[in-house]
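## Example pair
The file below holds two records. Each record gives the amino-acid sequence first, followed by its C-alpha cell line.
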Amino acid sequence: MGAEIIDGKKIAGGLGEANAARSEALRGAGIEPTLAVLTPGDDPNAGAYARSLVKAGTKRGLVVRTVELPAGVDPAGFERLLKEAETGAHGVLVLRPLPAGLDPDAVDFLVDPDRDVDGVHPVNAGLLALGRPRFVPATARAVHHILKSTGVELVGKRAVIIGRSNIVGKPLFQLLLAEHLTVTVCHSRTRDLPGVAREAEVLAVAIGRAEMVTPEYVKPGAVVLDAGYNWNDGLGREQGDVHPDAAEVAGWFTPVPGGVGPVTTQMLVANVLIAAERGKTR
C-alpha cells in the first residue's frame, strides 16, 4: 500500500506565514530582525544553503547578511569576523564545514549564546538537556515538528535515531524524550543496525550517507523521517539518507527533496525571531 508522504513544503508554508506575522510585529515595534551567516567560501553546499537562507529569510521579513570565511582564516581572524558579524545581529549562524584551521568546539564556544540560533553553544545544548530549551537546532526542531504534525500518538512509542551529531541526533533525542518516547540513538558502531532500526515505530535518520537506510531497516507502518542531504553530481539532484523504496514499508515518510529541508529553513527563521523578540542586539 505504501506510506503517507509528508508534504514538507506545505508544512513550511504554514510556518512561513506565522514567521512573517511575527516579523511584521517586530518591525512595527521598530525592531528589524537580523541574521548574520558566516559561510566557508570554498564549499558549494554551504554557499547554496546560505543563498536559500537569504531568499527564505527576506521573504519572511528578516535582514540576512552573509560573511564569507577565507579558506586560510586563523582563529584570531575568525573571532574578529564573528564579532563584526554579531554587531547589530539578533542571530548568528556559522555554516560547516569550517576552514581547516578552525576547531569546531572552539567555534561553538565563541558564538554568543544569546545569538546562537543554531543551538550549538554549550549553554543552549545544556538548557535543552534540562528541558528548558531556548534555541533548538533547526533540523532537529523540524523533524520534531513534522512528527507532531502526523497526529500519531507518541507516548510510550519506541523511537530510533540513526546519527548522533550535535545538530540533529543529540538534540532530537532530547525532544523525543520530552514527548515520552523510549529513544535509542544509533551510530557507526551499533551492532545489527538494521535489526535495531526495525524495532522503531518512529525512525529518524541523519547520517550523511546517501540512501543507506533501505526497506530492511523499517518496521511496517513506522514513521520514517529523513533528515539527510547528499548531493549527487552524477544524478544532478539531492538524495536523502533513506532509500525511496522504504516508503513501501513505512506508514509515514518524508521525501527528499520536499520533506525536512523546507521545514528546517523556517525553523531557523523562527529561531532568529525568538532572539529578536528577546531584544538581544548591540
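Second record, same layout:
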Amino acid sequence: MDPQLANQLLEEGDGQAMLGGQAAEATVLFTDIRSFTTISESLGPQATVSMLNEYFEIMVACITDAGGMLDKFIGDALMAGFGVPLATDDAPDAAVKSAISMISQLRVWNASRLTNEKPAVNMGVGINTDTVVTGNIGSSKRMDFTMIGDGVNLAARLEGSCKTYGAQIIISEYTKSKLKGIYALRELDRIVVKGKTEPVSIFEVLDFHDDSTFPARMDVVGHFSEGLNHYRSSDFDTAIKSFSAALEANAKDVPSQLYIERCNLLKDTPPPAGWSGEWVMTEK
C-alpha cells in the first residue's frame, strides 16, 4: 500500500479494522496491454522490462493523481481501486478521469516511442462500481491489501471486452449511474459476462478522442444509437441500415461492423421470444 495512504488510514483511527477486512463500495479499474506477447518478443527481455517500467510509471501517476489506490500489477496488467480503503463521494468520476488521462498520456508516450523507432503500446481499460471485500489477504510470509468479489471480476471482464468492441475504455452501467460529471459516452451493448446470468449495460468512454482519432464522432454515435434501438427491437434490416450509415461516416468504427455481423447472424437464427438485445459473452 502507498505509505501516505497507510498513514492516513492509521490517523483515521480505524485503519487496523479496515486492513482486517470489510465490505465497501469501490470503483475498480483494470488495464491490460494489447498484443503484449508480440511486443515483448520483438523487444527482447531487457527492453521489455524497461518498456513496462516506463509504462507503469505513467499509469500509476494517472491513478494516484486522481486519488486512486494501486492494488497490484498482474504481469502487463494492473488493478486499481477508487473509494477504498477510505470512502470518497466521487470515486466513479475519479476512476473515469484517471482512465481518460491514461489514454491521453499513452498517446504522448507512443509519439515519443515512434520517434525513437520503438513499437507503440495500446491498452484497454475496464471500470466497474460495486460492493467489494477489502483487506489484507495472503499468507503469514506475505500479505497485500487488496479487493475481491464479483465487482472486481466484472471490471476485469469489461477490460477484456475492449478487444471485442475496439474500445479503449469501457464502464459498466453501475459506474455510469453514479457519475456526477458529464462525459462523452456511447452505449455499446447489454452483455452477459462469462459465469453470470444477468445482463449488464456497458458504455464506451470517448472523451480522449479528437477529430484525428475518431472522425465524425457525433454522426457515428447518432447512427449507432439508432441502430442499437432497432437491433433491440429485432428490426435487423433497419438496424443494418443505421450501422451502415455509421460506417459511411467512419469506416473504421468497430462496433458498427460488429453489429452488422450480428444482425445478419440473427436474421438467419432469430433470437427467442422476449429477447431484448442482450448478448452472451463466451470469452473472459
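Notes on the second record: DSSP finds ten helices and nine strands in the chain. The mean pLDDT is 92.
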